[in-house]
Amino acid sequence: MAGEPELKTATRQRAISPLTAAWAVVLSLLAITIAWLYFSDEPQVAAVIEQSPSTEAPAEENEPSTSIALDIPEGPAPEINAPAAEIPVTSPETSSTIPEPTVTTTNSSLSSTQLPLKPAPNQNLLVRGENGFKPALGPDGLIAWQEYARPFNGDESAPRIAIMVTDIGLNTRSSNAAIDDLPGQIDLAFSPYGRNLQDWLNKGRAKGHEGFLMIPTEPMNYPANDPGPHTLITDFSPRDNLLRLDWILSQVTGYVGVINHMGSKFTASEEALTPVLTDLSGRGLMFVDARSSRFSMAARIARSMNMPRAVNDRYIDNVITSEEIQSQLRELENTANTLGVALGLARATPLTISEIAAWAETLPEKGIELVPVTAVANRQAIR
Predict the structure, then answer these.
(1) Which domain holds residue 166?
(2) Sign of the CA dihedral 11, 14, 19, 24?
């Protein structure tokens, strides 16, 4: 009995052994076949890849990033992604050749207007406050609105039109377009809520643009229509409004003056306006009355202080269509031809920028000078 299990085991092994051998042979042949196919195909695939590089980028590389999508301004905008068939594919041998830029009459004329202004700010025109540096009168009669102004060397007897484009610094694409695509005589107004405002103002001055700072002021339907934090409020005490003004003025340096943003209620109040304009005048700044309502007293109060001032004659793009923008620009021409000077306000939208840029090219043949805002200071009748 002790030897019986050993005998059965030996017998079982001899019975199973051929089957095991057969399976071993089959598996070996299968492994050899797979290995042969794998190693014989790989070099061919590699050769194809090396000889014919794919022109199709991964899908995620063709899609705009989230930051770009969020940065598209309102209104019509150019297509971001052109159809694949319209994108030329260059080989490595030709991609290193960079074509020379084409110099046309248009871009040559634009470049001639975008001569850089002197670097800003002048340290002699700054004082440190609780929120940072803000404008101050300098020594020997040095005044911010004159120091940072773009020189005007045009025809003194010709009608003058000044244009100011607002909301610079809020949108990267539209801000860049305003700086790069508009003549240097056109002024830029910077929102105090923009990011990297000093960089924007410096870039604008490098292209010849004077800079103004937007001052948020209370509209009639506030707070349903809210210009933003630090808005100057009619019912606030002068001290509270001046504290808010201090924050606003400290957001950037090197601007020639300020313009009210909204403010149909605030600019109609002599009591609320006077302390604010007194402070601004004492800093050597120019003031532009946006005339958000016909009841605005801002320009009259500024005149009584002998403060350099200008008044908006027309909102150019309240209706953002080519026909309406062109109509408003024609009205500015009529005003300039009749009164000798006109000032228009526009927003930094793609259509507005395009229309103003095209219109500006027509002014020389009409005998009208496109001038910076400082060149119309104190030249308008105050109504």
Answers:
(1) 114-376
(2) positive
